[in-house]
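To start, one record:
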Amino acid sequence: MEWSDVGRVLGTRRLGEADALVELMTRGHGRHLGVVKGGRSRRHAPHLQIGNRLDVVWRARLDEHLGHFAVESTDARAAGLMADPLALNAVQTLAAHLRLLPERDPHPELFEHFEVILDHFDRPRLAAELVVRFELAIVEALGFGLDLSECALTGEGADVADLAWVSPKTGRAAGRIAGARWADRLLPLPGFLAVADADDPATWGQVATPELRAAFELARHFLARHVWETRGITPPATRDGFLAALWRALGD
């Protein structure tokens, strides 16, 4: 068995004296593990850091085997990330989220989203918007996505911009007026998350800090409810580190 792909390093573990077990998020083959022979050597180790991009060839006798990676670095940005607390904590948090995915389950849209985030740490407000959308995309990929298509209380969804609340149990949205009487039981829905043109780059990087704070609290709630608590996982400490660095960068 053999395939070629591109991937970002999510983590490495020592394997024997000289080799490394490397975990990648690949574009076409999802989260995938493999052995890199000599991965702990001076030649390979610098390239096997979290966030670096590799061209990889995976080989194994059978598809279900662990297999080996032959790797070539194409974007070694890990050293630069280490100099920026916001970027370093963000990448480690994103890697922790991607490890939640089933192994070898392709998610090319998440790979591309990860790529976009890595290119925008010089704009903290934009990076924040991209990261929180990524977190909600992870929740959706795991089968627990929010339903922001209509008001769950009235069944009306003509104007998604009027959606202002989310049920903490069902993840369904509610309109501003219809949900007002239950506001103390609902989670605020930041308006930018309900906008249909979220994929338009012209709209990126304009979200106010209070809306970003609400969005990260929303994402935290559903990650905790559907992922961390049910799997007995401790939330990544790097997420708090990223948010602390973010609010400093935004002057808040």
